[in-house]
Amino acid sequence: MSTETTTSDIGLLDILRKSGPCSVAQLARAMEVTATAVRQRLTRLLALGDIEKSTERASDGEAARGRPIHRYGLTEKGRRRAGANFADLAIALWEEIREIKDAEVRRGLLSRISGRMASLYAEQIRGSNLDERMESLAELFRQRQIPFDVERSRDLPVLHARACPYPELADRDRSVCAMEKNLFSQLLGENVRLSNCRLDGHTCCTFEPQLREGDAPAEPPFRDGSAESRLGGSLALP
């Protein structure tokens, strides 16, 4: 069974967001599909933790008298996914952050934002080692329809973002890349650096773990012209 959210799943989540808990029959009518198709989507969304099932006595007209009926509603995770289209608000808030004149205040604010996001995602990151945590992080974004993958051909796993999670923000201000790097570092428990960036014409954004001192031969912290050297550190702003 697939555990990735599809476009039709998003439509079902949106119906539950607008209407509240629904039965299979109600969802089938609203989506104009068969009850079997609805049950398949519900099974997938239950496995993902986006919805939860409750049982109640059916009212007349819904089922035989006294027979229980199952209704499906959004979990907190599902509510966040169903209501995730806040690009305009995010852009407006980001522009206000950029208007803050004091660079240290801006850095502190962005650090708190990345910390808050890390606390929201932390319970969904699993694994006893870096490889497992990185794969869990990639899966977290794949569930949000953002293609991430992990490359294991090197000494340490490398995270590739094939699309930007915040395209509208990144196009206006690449410091969002620094915030994302800081977020990934917190979730993975290892410092990572942004070695390639789509804004520089690369095919994807690449996040590489930084080896601790003594783990490997020392090398310059940033390569000339690298994305991170232009960002100027974990949360540098223009």
Largest sheet: 4 strands, antiparallel
Reported by name, the CATH topology of the largest domain is Muramoyl-pentapeptide Carboxypeptidase, domain 2
- The rough form would be described as globular
Regions with little confidence, pLDDT below 50 for 5+ residues: 215-238
Q: Beta fraction of the residues?
A: 5-15%
CATH architectural name of the largest domain: 2-Layer Sandwich
On the 0 to 100 scale, the average pLDDT is: 80
Order of helices and strands: HHHEEHHHHEEHHEEH
What class do helices, strands and sheet pairing give? alpha+beta
Q: How helical, in percent, are the residues?
A: 40-55%
* CATH class division of the largest domain: Alpha Beta
Task: State the total count of DSSP E strands.
Answer: 6
Count of distinct structural domains: 2
Number of helices in the DSSP assignment? 10
Provide the fold topology:
Elements: H1 7-19, H2 24-31, H3 35-48, E1 51-57, E2 68-74, H4 76-82, H5 87-98, H6 103-121, H7 130-142, E3 148-151, E4 158-161, H8 167-172, H9 175-188, E5 192-196, E6 205-209, H10 227-231
Antiparallel strand pairs: 1-2, 3-4, 4-6, 5-6
